[in-house]
Amino acid sequence: MAGLSFLCVAALLLLAGGGAIPPPEEAARMARFVLHNCDWGALATLSAQEGLRGQPFANIFSLSDGPPGPLGGSGVPYLYLTDMEISVQDLEINSNASLTVSLAQTPYCKKHKYDPQNPLCAHIIFCGSIVKVNDSEAGLAKRALFSRHPEMETWPKDHNWFFAKFNITNIWVLDYFGGLKIVTPEEYYSVKP
Predict the structure, then answer these.
(1) How far is Cα 144 from Cα 159, in angstroms, rounded to an integer?
(2) What pLDDT is recorded for position 20?
(3) Cα–Cα dist 139/147, whole Å
(4) Any residues with CB less than 8 A from the CB of 16 and at least 6 apart, and which?
(5) Counting beta carbons within 10 angstroms of the beta carbon of residue 122, is it exposed (0 to 12), middle (13 to 18) or buried (19 or more)?
């Protein structure tokens, strides 16, 4: 446990120092870096709720692509979900979604006095779908999530929690001036953060 705490502190110090931020010309690395350094994201679904059907609906979810530290990220955003959650009910009707993660939730942007909307406070928009992980991937998802969100292990069992992942089909990176950069999933998964 002490080793994990040390890794978390070391990762935050490296991120706060700004030395680990990939350069703007490495958009795929930036996407991996931002996802790996974020513990939550805004997941947007198409609402299936009465009175909101078909309308965009964004909600915050804890996520992880692997244990903290420079070598822990797979690039796959894993989530721990229950059918009792309103956005999960939307996903049961239409599994398509978008996920936004931002360095605004890390010390980096505050240290540099970047507003969350400033392009230098990088954020990544993923589009794709949410799918339940199969049994062979469940252990990986559990390690990824519980290493960053240990409270999850104590959540009520009667809520029927399950592991899911964001199946990425499109990626947009905003990390510098001049507009969004498009990164393919192949480019994204071929680099390390």
Answers:
(1) 20
(2) 81
(3) 12
(4) 106, 107, 108, 111
(5) buried
Q: Which residues of the chain have pLDDT under 70?
A: 1-19
pLDDT at position 70:
81
2 half-sphere exposure, CB direction, 13 A CA radius: 0
Q: Around Cβ 150, how many Cβ atoms within 10 Å?
A: 11
Residue 95's closest CA among 34, 171, 166, 170? 166
The count of residues in the chain is 193
Query: Within 13 Å of residue 38, how many CA atoms lie on the same side as its CB?
Result: 31
Pairing verdict, β 40-46 and 56-62: antiparallel
Three-state secondary-structure class, residue 159 = helix
Over residues 2-49, the pLDDT tens digits come to 444 433 433 443 443 334 899 999 999 999 999 999 999 999 999 999
Q: Which CATH class is domain 41-190?
A: mainly beta
